[in-house]
Design a protein that fits this description.
alpha+beta; about 35% strand
């Protein structure tokens, strides 16, 4: 039997623990000698490096759709702090640092979040969709991934029909962050836009794109372990020089995640040892 955390046994302690973690979290950032990106510019840099989009409303969540609309509200609040953000050479982008005061003038709404392995309503819920999209964009640039955490459990089916496993990035202020460092001589910029159903993201730069990237799963399998369905994937990145045409293959990591929703009937699930 898994031992419960103190905050699970005494939920009233959770706000105190969260405040404590945030203090240590940001004090640590002040002491780590990094320069964190925080400059926003309305003028866009001249060269597009990568663009993508993400459907915001998930009809398959199993919860009242109002929480999906609340998520859209939360995403747009966070975007006000990220849209136009400049990442200069030597600077570090931190999702938590940039969005830490996004709700200062207008509060977040209750969205869906994974807490202690279960989907529940939470203030500011749904922001992981933002960090997911940003991580996907960063993988298609020369920016160096400093910190990324995958979800331990996926409890809601993805909205996209073409599913690439293991390229998510969960965030939790005070605990988990998404960080990238600009180790290049180029300046990058994040641009975010919305329509009623979709969030759009672009990475721009002050110089032309040097490489083309392809992210893919070298392997993807589902295993039943201790009564849980576990998704195991190997995430790879292919980088091709736009000058020489030379291609390099890079094994990024192996990702493991519990799938807590019914998989399609055509998906094979093997039995674990």
């Amino acid at each position: 039997m898994t031992r419960k955390r103190v905050t699970e046994r005494f939920p009233w302690l959770l706000p105190i623990r969260q405040a404590q973690r945030k203090i240590f979290f940001y004090v640590g950032m002040r002491l780590d000698k990094n320069t964190y990106a925080q400059t926003q510019k309305k003028a866009h840099l001249s060269h597009e490096i990568f663009e993508t989009d993400s459907q915001m409303l998930n009809q398959n969540s199993g919860f009242d759709m109002k929480y999906q609309f609340n998520k859209v509200h939360n995403l747009k609040l966070a975007a006000k702090k990220i849209n136009g953000l400049i990442i200069r050479p030597g600077e570090v982008f931190s999702f938590c640092y940039v969005t830490r005061k996004a709700d200062k003038k207008e509060p977040y709404r209750d969205g869906l979040s994974l807490v202690n392995g279960e989907i529940t309503r939470e203030y500011g819920g749904g922001l992981c969709q933002f960090s997911n999209m940003l991580y996907w964009m960063f993988l298609h640039t020369q920016l160096t991934i400093v910190e990324r955490h995958g979800h331990e459990v996926e409890a809601i089916p993805p909205t996209e029909s073409e599913y690439l496993a293991g390229v998510d990035a969960t965030v939790a202020e005070g605990w988990l962050d998404l960080k990238v460092k600009n180790d290049t001589t180029h300046t990058y910029q994040i641009v975010i836009d919305f329509d009623s159903k979709t969030m759009y993201g672009k990475i721009l730069s002050d110089s032309t794109r040097c490489f083309d990237y392809k992210i893919y799963n070298q392997s993807l399998r589902y295993v039943r372990e201790k009564g849980k369905v576990v998704e195991k994937s190997i995430v790879m990145r292919q980088r091709t020089s736009r000058v020489s045409g030379q291609t390099e293959e890079e094994r990024l990591y192996e990702n493991t995640c519990i799938i807590d929703y019914p998989l399609p009937v055509n998906i094979e699930i093997s039995e674990g040892v």
